[in-house]
Amino acid sequence: QVQLVESGGGLVQPGGSLRLSCAASGSIFSINAMGWYRQAPGKSRELVASISDSGSTNIADSVKGRFTISRDNAKNTVYLQMISLKPEDTAVYYCNSVLRTGWYRPAVTYWGTGTLVTVSS
Length: 121
Hints:
11 strands; 121 residues; mainly beta; four-stranded antiparallel sheet; seven-stranded mixed sheet; elongated
């Protein structure tokens, strides 16, 4: 069993900052990529940022320069630091991890249940 638990969402004013965390737990052998997606009301889920096991990052153009992704491999945790937040950043943010539960098992994608970020005055 694998669980991804997100935290850190909430209400913030435009221009404010938030830091999201996502911890993976359970029968984990190795973690490849970890990342964050978001889904705004009436829109499809989109990639925000991802980070590989070697630390290479991929950041969506819409948040580049404002959001930073990082990970702590010892804690199986990924972070999303968000600054200069805009109302259009309002969405449910989902944590995602591609991992293996055994050396002989293929990599599988797991998802968290999401944390709501609301940017409003």
